[in-house]
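Query form — protein Carboxylic ester hydrolase

QUESTION: What is the three-dimensional structure of this chain?
INPUT:
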Amino acid sequence: MLAESAYFCAISACAAAVFAGSPTVTISAGEIIGTTLSPLNQPTSTGHANAYLGIPFAKSPPERFSPPETPDSWENPLRAQELKPACIQQATGRTPTQDFLAEEWNIVKLHQSEDCLYLNVYAPEDASPSNKKAVLFWIHGGNLQIGSASFPFYNGTSLAVNEDVVVVTINYRLGVFGFSNCPEICKKERNVGFLDQRLALDWVSRNIEQFGGDATRVTIFGQSAGGYSVKQLVANPPTPQPFQAAIIQSQQVLLGRNGKENYYKLLKAFNCRDLPCLRDVPAEDIKVYTGLKRLSFPPTSDDATSLTDVRDSFCDNKFANTPIMLGTTKDEATIFVKQFFDLAKDPWASEDLVFDFLGLGDERDRSSLKRAYPDAVNPSPFAQEFSDLAPLERQYPDGLRALPPNERLMQSVVQSEGPKYFGGRVYHKEEPPFGQHQVLDDLRSWKLALLSRIVTDLVFNCPTASISGYISDRGYNVWRYRYCAAFPNLTPFPDAGAWHGTEIPEVFGTYPLKNDHGKATEQQIRLSAHMQHVWAEFAKNPDKGPGWAKVQPNSSDRSLADFGSNGSSKHAVVPWSSVDAACKLVQTYSDLLGFAW
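ANSWER: The structure tokens for Carboxylic ester hydrolase are given below.
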């Protein structure tokens, strides 16, 4: 894990064209009239999808903080032709990351409501109860705080038209509305956001065949917090199990562990003593307060919908024995680390913000992590310019060897008001090529790249390696991938790389043909077609696998699929060792900090 950002704005203009068709289905609750869509960013495509937008899968609005209930029937035909509002978004959280996401993802302009428990169905035109298709069930990301099935890049039209599958996208409650941490509520009913997801899955089991979907061939997939949700569904599967396979993309949530404390802060803020009082507070007031105070509400570990450590599911013989594909992007963390660099006055302060956010306050731990990336540490951006200073570097303690050569000296240059004299050169504050700004720019770029690699491994890549290996070692079928491509029309800032969520428009076929950042490239178009096919074929026949070797149990000879590397529009099979070089050290910190399992 993503989002409706400035660099995705053009997607809303290319998601799908509306045609005059009005497909109709009848389920137990009543008749539903949909619409007909065609993918706009594929001008050679002549196919259409039957789209049913905004179908209630629960009573909506639900009672605040309570589990969802099955919706009532309707007498008149339900016109399911427009997307419904998003659930209430928590645009800020415990760190500036949430402020950054709110600004970049345009959350403030998103129509939001507690009346939000709806789903969308995209089906091939020829799908019917007698011609059933495999189903892809999408759970959006957003740190369990933001996101919506209505975001244009989750439009399932291209997958339905080009890959002959049914796509379902859902809303679920977020933030305190979805994960209240309220001790007055039974533990197994506190994670109503996860319960919303489960009721939507139950709705699919009961109704999807009327849309031409095969209820016995449902693959759940999600990204970021959506991937985390899929992981929890696999670790705590409903009975009977409503899915046959799972795809977990860049799974993670970063919400801290003080949910109950934050719930009590919320009560106090509105002069409430109990839950009934808080149910009467206007939703907008709660939204504003939790945002301003940066209150986060993580899921409660309840042994029913959520586990802090999914390995416990194996101990209890609960983990679903189902084919799993999981993976990450090459540069997950750039989009998060970048915002700390935008906030801080210099690269050293930025580094402190990043490590403090991760919970790494000890300088020895920080240096240890940086030493896991020797190719990034040496050579530094100053190796050539300041090679004559190498003897001086020996004066610094070994604990600083993980820093780029001469960084402490450069810090002295940056902080000085007058000229500095090193190695026979004079460094002025403003004078190029060795002035303050040049030093700062070089060092900022270097640190951004290094810290992004560390956070990518710490939070995403190494946990994914550990989980996939652990699952495989217990006899389950699992396949791993990595997404490596970067394209101009999906690049929010220079050197963003394959950032967290950038694979989503490729999987859905919703990349913009053209926007302010650039045009779709031939590689991008072909890679998207390939990834759509891989995802869809896995949904159709997950036991066969996605097209590369599964993770071998108890083996050091493991491989994964690398999508879009080196300009390719396909995937290459590469060894884990080429991706996980730092994980032997980094995974220890992932485990200690609660990112691993």
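ADDITIONAL NOTE: Residues 436-473 form the longest helix (38 residues).
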